[in-house]
Structure formats: C-alpha cells, structure tokens
Design a protein that fits this description.
Number of domains: 2
Strand order of the largest sheet: 4-10-9-8-7-5-6
Shape: globular
Largest sheet: 7 strands, mixed
Bound molecules: pyridoxal-5'-phosphate
Structural class: alpha/beta
Strand content: 15-25%
Number of helices: 13
Number of strands: 15
CATH superfamily of the largest domain: Type I PLP-dependent aspartate aminotransferase-like (Major domain)
Helix content: 25-40%
Distance between the termini: 36 Å
CATH topology of the largest domain: Aspartate Aminotransferase, domain 2
C-alpha cells in the first residue's frame, strides 16, 4: 500500500483522535539500526525511537533471534502458567535494579505498570490517597489520566478520586519564581504542603518520573527526590518512581535514572525500552512489599509477561550489555548535549537544553526574556526535519519542547548527522516570520 492508501484507510477505520505527527502523517515500513524507511522508500534517522522504546535499534539481530526462536515454540501462556522467560527476565532485571527491588509483576504497558504500582501501594499501606506531580504523565486509563498533570492528556477531567498534584521541579519555569541552587529545592516542600492541606494526612504513595517525559524532559535538581522520599515516608506512603521513559540506561551512567539521586524507591515501574518495541511492562518492588499482595484479592494478566515479549526483553538486555551499556549512553549523550548547547548559542529560539544521556530536551521560545512558548516554530521545525530525513519528538504542556532520544546504540557519528540536520532546520525557522 502506498502512503495515500494507508492514510485513507486510517481516516476511515481508525479513531480520529489518535495523535499523529506531521501535516502529512508518515507511514513507516521497515527499520534497521538507527534508520527507518517510509512506504515510499525515504530514509530517516530515528532520534525518537518510537517514543524512547527501540532501545537497541530497529531489527536488532540479538533481539530478533530470541523473538524468532520463541515464536516457533509457544506464543502465549497467560500469567496462570510459569514460563522460563519470565523467571529469567526477573533474574536479569534484579541484577540491574537498585536496592532490594528484585520482585516483578509483568504487564503489557506503562499504564498497566503504573496502575499495578498504585494498587500495590494502596494494599500495602492501607491508605488510598496518592500524590503525583504537575506536568507528569502516567498513561491512558482513567486512573493514569488522573495521575497525569497536564490538561490536554486528562480527557474527561477528574473521574478518579484521591489523587492530588504537587508543583513540579521545573527549574526553567520555576513555579515558585526562584532560581536553583539558591532556592534550596523549595519545591520539594510543596509535597508536604499538599499532603497536609488536601489529604487525610495518610497517603498511599507519591508517584513521579525522574525526568518528566511527555512533560518535556523536565529534569529535577539531583537532591529533589531524597527530600521528597523523607516526606513521603513520614506520611506513611511509598515512593513510586516511574522509569517508563527513563529506565534501561536511557539517561546514561546508571541503568535507572533515579539512581543518579542516590534514592532507592519502594516501587519502580518500567515499560517502553524494556523489550525494544514488544509490549511489556514490569512493576518492581521488594519481596517484603510484594508479600502484602498475598490474600488481598485475585489478580491475573492475560498478556502480561508474554513469552515472546519476555524473549525480546532478554535479548534487549543482552544487546544493551554488549552494545549500549549506560557508560556508552553517557558518552554519546555528552556529545549530543554539547552539540545542542552549541545550537543554543547560535539560535535565540532555543531557551533551554536539559536532560541526561540520550534523553535531551530543547525548549523553544520566541523570546528568551518572556519565555513565550514557540509553538508555531516547533511545528515548522518538525516539517523541515522530516524533509531532511530526521525524526524527533516533541512534548511539554505548551508543546514547545523537542524530545531528542535516539536508540541507545547511537554513535557519535549518528549524533553528528542529527546535529547537522537540526542546524539546517533551526537556521531556516529562525529566519521565518509567524
Ligand atoms: C512516564 C510514563 N509513564 C507511563 C506511560 C504510559 O505508557 P503506555 O503508553 O505504554 O501505557 C508513559 C507513556 O508515554 C510514560 O511516558
């Protein structure tokens, strides 16, 4: 099918509210490593990795071999039957998760993992209320939308009670109008204020991303989470850290981004990059906390921990150890960061560059003083980068932050190629009038 036929059928048979990138949406056909091809044969350098998911590159041979072997043996079991892939994956994950986070519940999506985490916290603590962060994103179920802190992703408004939002550590647009580090990370204290003023004072959990993904790669100061953890524990809650976007070496140096702050959460959720694109998620906790689920009620997941997805996850971890170790990500990420900062010096449109490793955000503003979000400019830049053969993402409450996150197998050469295309696109957009 050509692009036009696909788009016609898309309009006819798929829901119209499905968000699609680009004025002319881009039907993709195949991929290899850092590159994907559309149905017309055009090649693109993929610096968004299917929303930070293709961790070790498209069609990675290690992952694909594992998938092929499993497909020919058994496609499906459900969680009613133990499977070697599931237990092996648990063992491999326990080698890289911090502290005692070495027991897992496998599901199918980030939404599923966050739902499971909150259910666990409620059962374990006997409390109901949950604190999340403004600008955060947790997924598309009613509860995940209630946890989410951005109006465009909270369709239908609050339909789930007991979730409150604290201000987020968004240093570029500090909600307290303060400056780091003189602020002393005062925003962390809002978590206590929210608990004391809007809850019963006994919470089940605080849930947050170490770097807010959909929020526009908002990166808290390193000491933020230690302050918050102390508050959350004091009010009887568990610290749930959502590593759906940031996990699996994405931010470099560490396997999980929360490790950078020295904090070991009580519960950690993962999805996206875990299986290089196959649907899989995991909710990790300690054996002691997991034990509290026994007797609380029955739970199954039909597709959770599917043998093919877990085979892909085993292959992904193997490939990461070989080709995309967190140290590699730190090195290539530093190269990317330096290049983006050079672009920031050159183009006033770039207000802020933030993130770690291969998770770099570029917030675009029409004016560095007023910080007016450069939404139209982002739209124009998207079209130009597409024409130039580069795929990137965007996010943020105002939709004005570029999300740059290639597969972790990216090399400095790939980064150079992306920077060249971004430079070309920024040069054009900077000259346009809107
Ligand atoms: C941090 C975070 N949590 C949860 C989710 C939900 O994941 P899924 O789309 O797999 O349900 C996402 C998705 O973007 C996410 O970024």
């Amino acid at each position: 099918m050509n692009a036009q036929e696909i788009l016609e059928k898309q309009r006819k048979h798929l829901w119209p509210n499905q968000l699609l990138y680009y004025t002319d949406p881009l039907p993709l056909e195949r991929g290899e490593g850092l590159y994907v091809w559309d149905v017309e044969g055009n090649r693109y350098l993929d610096f968004f990795a299917g929303i930070l998911t293709t961790s070790v590159g498209h069609n990675n041979p290690r992952v694909n071999q594992r998938i092929h072997e499993q497909v020919d043996k058994l496609l499906h079991t459900s969680t009613l039957y133990p499977h070697a892939n599931q237990v092996l994956l648990g063992e491999r994950l326990a080698e890289i998760t911090p502290g005692e986070l070495n027991t897992f519940y496998f599901g199918t999506s980030g939404t599923d993992a966050d739902e499971t985490a909150v259910m666990l916290a409620r059962v374990h603590t006997g409390h109901q209320e949950v604190i999340a962060l403004r600008h955060g994103y947790s997924g598309k179920s009613p509860m995940a939308m209630a946890l989410t802190g951005q109006a465009p992703w909270r369709m239908g408004g609050d339909t789930v009670v007991g979730i409150k939002h604290a201000i987020n550590p968004y240093c570029y647009r500090c909600p307290l109008k303060m400056t780091y580090p003189e602020c002393g990370v005062a925003c962390a204290e809002d978590v206590e204020d929210v608990i004391r003023t809007t809850t019963s004072g006994r919470i089940a959990a605080f849930l947050a991303e170490p770097i807010q993904g959909v929020g526009g790669f908002i990166t808290p100061p390193p000491e933020y989470f230690a302050r918050v953890q102390e508050i959350v524990h004091r009010y009887g809650g568990l610290l749930i850290i959502d590593e759906v976007q940031t996990g699996f070496g994405r931010t470099g140096e560490y396997w999980f981004a929360i490790q950078r702050s020295g904090v070991v959460p009580d519960v950690m959720t993962m999805a996206k990059g875990i299986a290089n694109g196959l649907p899989l998620s995991a909710t990790a906790t300690t054996p002691e906390i997991a034990q509290s689920m026994v007797g609380a009620g029955l739970t199954i997941s039909t597709f959770g921990g599917n043998p093919v997805s877990t085979a892909a996850a085993l292959g992904t971890l193997e490939a990461m150890h070989e080709e995309a170790h967190p140290q590699h990500v730190a090195e290539v990420g530093a190269h990317l960061r330096a290049g983006l900062e050079r672009l920031q010096e050159k183009y006033p449109l770039i207000g802020d560059v933030r993130g770690y490793g291969l998770m770099q955000g570029v917030e675009m503003v029409t004016d560095r003083e007023s910080k007016e979000p450069a939404v139209k400019q982002v739209g124009a830049l998207f079209e130009i980068t597409k024409q130039a053969g580069l795929l990137i993402g965007k996010g943020g409450l105002y939709g004005n932050t570029l999300r740059i996150a290639p597969p972790l197998t990216a090399t400095k050469e790939h980064v150079e190629e992306a920077l060249e295309k971004l430079d070309y696109a920024f040069a054009q957009v900077q000259e346009m009038s809107f």
